[in-house]
Amino acid sequence: MTLAEMGRDDWARFTLRQRMQRYAVFAACALAVAWALGSIEIIWAWVWDAPVQMGDLFARMYPPDPTNLGTILRVLWETVNIATIATAFAVILALPVAYLAAQNTTPNQATLWLGRLILVTSRSVNTIIWALLFVAIFGPGIIAGIVAIMFRSIGFVGKLLGEAIEEIDKRPVEALEATGASRFKVIAYAIVPQVMPTFWAVAILRWDINLRESTVLGLVGAGGIGIILQGAIDTFNWREAAMVLLAILALVILGEIVSAWLRRRII
Q: Is residue 92 located within the same domain as residue 212?
């Protein structure tokens, strides 16, 4: 019997068994969410009171206080430097890691797993956790912030570049190898030209991400605009905190504009 011969009431997208399976999955998800909400200690009185508290906080923040604007701009520039320097070092260090983590370029199985271990380790630890660790090692300041963002970025950049290397066209590589070219020449003339668009795209994207992450590093003493924000919050100077938040917002928007411009010019 064709679909046209069947009545409209006879056709269904899923069979009864498939519908039961879908309902069972939905029910399991609902039970999982209910269990998760029940397993954590939520003070619901505070949740319902949150809109009132938020309104009170915004009232204290208005109008923003520009008295300390010069210092805010100076530290904001420091935040940009942290993101830029960390991204530059991360991209350089991620190149050999990506080479090791790509199946078609890694020398052997041991180096393959070494490269992937570095990538997983870097991406598994949040930037704030890296910052706490390096503040303990280097002390408070921008050095800890730069190293923290750099370590976090290596995994991101290395993974995407490694995947790009694995997807290259093998014919130029095989052609150069057939002529007896050295491994360095194969990389320089067959692999690098194919991954350069991905390289620039990933580098610009990571710089944009790092610009956002560097704004909160000061909360744990790793330099940047977060230091002033934390100081304003600790002293209940909500008007200055509002000014800092507006400066961070302006920085993020400016970063988006610069990233879009760089992508148009380079890629």
A: yes
Could you give the C-alpha distances from 190 to 8, 15, 76, 165, 174, in angstroms and in order? 59, 52, 41, 11, 9
Residues 32 and 151 in one domain: no
16 and 118 together in one domain? no
Residue appearing with tokens 């039970």 = 31
In sequence order, what are the residues at sequence separation of 6 or more whose Cβ sits closer than 8 angstroms to the Cβ of residue 219? 128, 226, 227, 229, 230
Contact yes or no for 144/223 (Cβ under 8 A): yes
Cβ of 203: how many Cβ atoms within 10 Å? 21
Q: Single out the residue of 250, 230, 254, 252 nearest to residue 240, CA to CA.
A: 230
The pair of three-digit structure tokens given for residue 23, joined into one six-digit string: 């309902």
- Rg of the chain (C-alpha set): 26
Residues 214-228 pLDDT 10s:
888 888 877 788 888
Q: Greatest CA separation found in the chain?
A: 80
Binned at pLDDT 50, 70 and 90, residue 235 comes out as confident
Which domain range does residue 215 map to?
Answer: 69-160+199-266
